[in-house]
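Appendix C. Worked example: Transposase IS200-like domain-containing protein
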Amino acid sequence: MKLQKLETDRYYHIYNRGINGALIFRSKENKTYFLKLMNKYLSHKVSILAFCLMGNHYHMAVQVIEEEKIVTQSFSNLFNAYAKAFNKMYNRTGSLFEKHYRRVLVQDTNYLRNLITYINTNPAYHGVNKDYKTFEFSSYRSTVCQDSNEDLVPIAKEEVINLFGDTENFEYLHEQKRKLDINRLDLE
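Step 2, the predicted output written as structure tokens:
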């Protein structure tokens, strides 16, 4: 399978899950450490518009701001460093993530807005936390300037809010997505 190149100034949905759907985050400390590694390896190479860390998967919306080779290596370093630390902590060996992280080129602004909303409301979508606004390991709180993980992972807040027009519209569209997700869960 040929992987999508990470081109400068383009937006991407980056995501992956644990091998065979296994947990990649077993604790709050695991998630906090992953965020620290995101900052360490991705800072100044990509602009992070959204992220969410779930038990067995993660999502990111990023804009590439460095050249492809540097960014690809930075993502590789992030995932390798995390997998090594996770394996050591839990006395395990072997792959943690599925083969390659997925990278989907975002083609237009509307898709980017929907992607950011999807990522931030992922806890509600999966029924983990119906109030996605209180979920600690997503970019939602950082974007609306509430207490957040911003000191761990800087979010391109101004750019994100501009994509939605203003903070009120950002919050409104997230709430509409959450209502759709809750209805979907009620039907299942």
